[in-house]
Every structure is written in C-alpha cells, then in structure tokens.
C-alpha cells in the first residue's frame, strides 16, 4: 500500500487534513441592532416626515371636498378627466414628456460627439452647460423677454423680423389711407382706386392721411406736379394734413409732407397698363398709356410692418417654453453623455473604421449602442424632471395663454391655492403625478439592478 511521502500527497484512500475553517461574519444589524437603529433613525424620521406623511395625507385629502369636511370619495379623481383645464394640462404634460427629454438627450449626444475632436470643445461645453447655473425663475424671466412680441424688445422677433425683411420688401407707408371725401376708394383687397378715370389735362393728385408724424420726420415737402410733356398723367401723393390745423382739403398746402416711394398703377379694363413710383417730393409721372385709365395704389404700399411671430400665443406657447427648457438642460445631457463617451473603448471605433465603416456607421452601430446605458440614465432623469415642471410655465406664459400652456404641476398650484382654493382637487392631481412618476422610478431601479448584477 503506498504511503505519503514528505511533502507529497496523502496516500490514496486516506482523507487529507481538514481545510481551515473560514471565520463567520455576523452583520452589525444582528449583533447590535440598537446601533443600526440609531444611525437609521434620523433618516427614517426625515423620510417619514418629508415623503411618507405627505403622500399618505395627499391620498386622504383627495377624498374630501374643498373645505376638507365632506367626504366625496373618488369624485375628485373623476373631475381630473372631465375638467377641460386639467385635460389640457394632462395633454401638455404628455407633449413635455415626449418632446423635451428626447430633444435634450439628442442635442446632448450630438454636442458630446461633435466636440470630442475639436480643440475648443471644452470651451463649447462650458458655454452649453452654463445655463444650468441659472435658476428656473431667472431663465423664465429671460425667455419672457426673449419672446416679447415687440421686435424692439424681444430678441426672437428681432431676429425673425430681420430675416423676413431681408427677403420681403417692407411697405412704403404702412397704415396710410385716403383722405375722407377724396376720389380714392377702397378696392376690397387693401388697395385704393380712383372712382373716375384720369386724363392728361390736369394733375391727378392723391391725398392720403393716417401717417404718424414721427414717420414724416425726414420727408420732404410736397409740391404740385407739372404737366407731362408726352401727354401722360402726372400728380402728387402726399399727406393732406397741415400741422396745427388749417389748410384746404385736397390742396397741397405749404408744409404738407410728400410720400416718396409709393407705387401708382394705371388700370384699364382690369389690367395694369402703366406704373410709376413717387419721388422725394411725392410727384409721379405716368406715360401716355395712362390717359383715360383709373389710378390704383396697390395694397403693398400700406400693409402694416411685419412684427414677427406671436411666440406666446395659444398655438406656440408650449413649444416656446419647451425650447427654453431644452436651452437649460441640453448642457446637463451633454456632460453626462461626454463622460460616458470618454469610457468607450477606442479599439472598437478604430476596428470599425479599419473594416471600412464610415463615421455615420460608427456612430450608429457602435457609439450609440455602447452609450445606451448612459442615454437611458439621462432620458429617465429628464422624464422625471419634466413631469413636475412648473416654474418656466408659470413665469413665461402670459395670463391670456397660461391655460393653453397649463401642466399638471401648475394646475395643482392653481387648484389648491388659486381662486377656487380646492385642495381636494389639488391633492388628487398630486396623487396623479405620483402615479405617473412611479413607473419611471420602477423602470430606473430595475435597470440599475440589472446593470449591477454580475
């Protein structure tokens, strides 16, 4: 029978020495539960006072009427889906949840990828991230001014009007109209036409009014038109109004101002036979073809100046506010995605390029899939954030269109502390918001557990 040699294995059939037993670790919670309770008690008290109690009380309060004394059961919850204002808030919240997080995440991804290879990428990221340092209140005030209707105050309309006027010529004298009692009559499309035909025998003067005095500051004095040498029609277009009163209607009095740049058309049988434009002194001269025609001042001479877009009107107020939110939070998404992008193995990217993939294929098939966990974190965080959006909507939306931009958090405030002060309905909205947030939180927790699973 073989025996074990020194330093060799034990003989077959004979058990080896027992393995060293590992020390058994006992948790602190089992050995000293009072110590664990002392550490957990402050956190549990705060959690109960700031989270659990408000939730329980909100559910309880939502079952009572506005005074809090009459039990109404689920009537407040039924009202959530029958009240037009609350239904608008629910619809707007759905728009916010779909558009705002997606836009922020997409812009953050684009910024992070494009600035990775440029020398000034850090400076660009700093600029994009800077709005995060501004409070919602300050951002709301900023964008309330940005969206002002007056182009002289609102940046958005100043840019919009500038672009519009670059490609569309502005009218010569917006708001001008014929003097009452003159031969000019409205044609129905914003233009003005003489009631009778004109001829070369005498000047065909066209008196107008309605031009603000400040617009006439640099205008020259009007003067009568002389006869045309080729049998054409001449005349003057001027503001038939003398400062300080006086003057004779239909007559060019001293000091009355000329309207330069006005287009005058000669119309015969519905067709334009000749056109002319007034000079600095308001005079115009039409060729002989205008003899016997009627004169028309096209509507393009008098259309009101373009004042841009009503950004805070009923149809655009929600997209405008979402744009301000994206301005603030795109930097947040960019920073998180850039941090995840720094951890992407460069070997994968280089291997794909060596295999012939172009940059778009590398981005779509490698960068985005590898960054999927980071993108999910950003998207879920922003979804939770927009579900409780309040400040921007309350500050940016004017009173006339606040109902069109309404969201659940704002409706909660208005229902609880507004004119009606119905805290039962407000508590029901709070419970609805909680129910909307819970699935997102559950998804986030499951995702974190799945990522931490070995």
What is the fold's blueprint, element by element?
Elements: H1 28-31, H2 33-61, H3 75-80, H4 84-114, H5 121-129, H6 136-146, H7 155-167, E1 177-178, E2 184-186, E3 192-194, E4 206-209, E5 233-239, E6 263-268, E7 271-277, E8 283-286, E9 294-297, H8 317-342, H9 346-354, H10 359-370, H11 372-387, H12 391-396, H13 408-417, H14 423-452
Parallel strand pairs: 4-5
Antiparallel strand pairs: 1-4, 2-3, 3-9, 5-8, 6-7, 6-9
Helix pairs in contact: 2-14, 4-8, 4-11, 5-8, 8-11, 9-10, 11-14, 13-14
Task: Please explain how this structure is put together.
The chain is of the alpha+beta class. It folds into 2 domains: 78-156 and 311-452, MetI-like fold; 177-301, no CATH class. The chain is built from 14 helices and 9 strands. Strands 2-3-9-6-7 form a 5-stranded antiparallel β-sheet, with no helix packed on it. The radius of gyration is 38 Å and the shape is elongated. The protein starts with 27 loop residues before the first helix and ends with a helix. Mean pLDDT is 86; it is low at 1-11. Residues 1-11 have a biased composition (Low complexity). Belongs to the binding-protein-dependent transport system permease family. Keywords: Cell membrane, Membrane, Transmembrane, Transmembrane helix, Transport.
């Amino acid at each position: 029978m073989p025996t074990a040699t020194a330093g060799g294995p034990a003989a077959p059939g004979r058990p080896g020495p027992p393995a060293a037993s590992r020390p058994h670790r006992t948790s602190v919670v089992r050995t000293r539960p009072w110590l664990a309770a002392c550490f957990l008690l402050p956190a549990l008290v705060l959690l109960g006072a700031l989270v659990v109690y408000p939730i329980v009380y909100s559910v309880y309060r939502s079952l009572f009427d506005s005074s809090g004394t009459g039990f109404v059961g689920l009537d407040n919850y039924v009202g959530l889906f029958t009240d037009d204002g609350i239904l608008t808030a629910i619809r707007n919240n759905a728009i916010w949840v779909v558009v705002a997080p997606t836009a922020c995440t997409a812009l953050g991804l684009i910024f992070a990828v494009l600035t990775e290879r440029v020398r000034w990428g850090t400076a660009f990221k700093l600029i994009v991230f800077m709005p995060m340092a501004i409070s919602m209140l300050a951002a709301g005030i900023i964008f309330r001014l940005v969206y002002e209707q007056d182009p002289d105050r609102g940046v958005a309309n100043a840019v919009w009007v500038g672009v519009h006027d670059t490609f569309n010529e502005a009218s010569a004298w917006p708001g001008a109209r014929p003097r009452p009692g003159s031969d000019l009559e409205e044609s129905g499309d914003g233009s003005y036409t003489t009631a009778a035909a004109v001829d070369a025998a005498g000047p065909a003067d066209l008196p107008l009014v309605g031009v603000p005095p400040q617009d006439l500051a640099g205008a020259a004095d009007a003067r009568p038109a002389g006869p045309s040498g080729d049998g054409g029609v001449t005349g003057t277009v001027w503001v038939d109004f003398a400062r300080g009163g006086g003057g004779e209607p239909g007559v060019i009095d001293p000091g009355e101002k000329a309207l330069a740049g006005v287009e005058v058309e000669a119309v015969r049988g519905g067709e334009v036979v000749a056109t002319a434009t007034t000079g600095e002194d308001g005079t115009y001269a039409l060729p002989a073809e205008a003899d016997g025609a009627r004169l028309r001042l096209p509507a393009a001479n008098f259309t009101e100046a373009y004042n841009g877009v009503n950004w805070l009107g009923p149809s655009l107020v929600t997209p405008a506010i979402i744009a301000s939110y994206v301005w603030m939070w795109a930097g947040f998404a960019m920073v998180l995605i850039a941090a995840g992008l720094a951890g992407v193995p460069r070997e994968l990217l280089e291997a794909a390029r060596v295999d012939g993939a172009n940059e778009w294929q590398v981005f779509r098939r490698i960068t985005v899939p590898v960054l999927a966990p980071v993108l999910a974190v950003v998207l879920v965080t922003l979804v939770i954030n927009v579900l409780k959006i309040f400040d921007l909507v309350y500050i940016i939306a004017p009173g006339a269109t606040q109902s069109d931009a309404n969201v659940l958090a704002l409706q909660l405030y208005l229902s609880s502390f507004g004119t009606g002060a119905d805290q039962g309905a407000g508590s029901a909205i709070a419970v609805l918001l909680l129910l909307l947030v819970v699935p997102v939180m559950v998804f986030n927790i499951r995702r974190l557990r799945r990522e931490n699973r070995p």
